[in-house]
Specification:
- The chain is an alpha+beta fold.
- It is built from 2 helices and 2 strands, in the order H-E-H-E.
- Helices cover 22% and strands 16% of the residues.
Length: 74
């Protein structure tokens, strides 16, 4: 599934000449690193279980993050 998600994101930006290949990452929702975001980023930073209404996704297990790099124009 990781390969499918990564391929989908890469294909989505492939034809955008101003973007380079994205960085895609996956993390366990229960990672002890997430609560640290409240200190590092801001006290009101949402945790993985709070990002989507329970009616849509009641028990998330993975956080998918991606970063889009802008191409350097010459």
């Amino acid at each position: 599934m990781r390969e499918e998600v990564t391929s989908f994101i890469e294909a989505y930006v492939k034809d955008a000449s101003h973007l380079r290949k994205p960085l895609v990452g996956f993390a366990d929702c229960t990672s002890p690193m997430f609560p640290g975001l409240k200190t590092t980023v801001m006290p009101g930073h949402l945790m993985p279980g709070h990002l989507m209404p329970a009616e849509i996704l009641s028990d998330p297990t993975v956080v998918i993050s991606y970063f889009l790099f802008f191409a350097v124009s010459t």
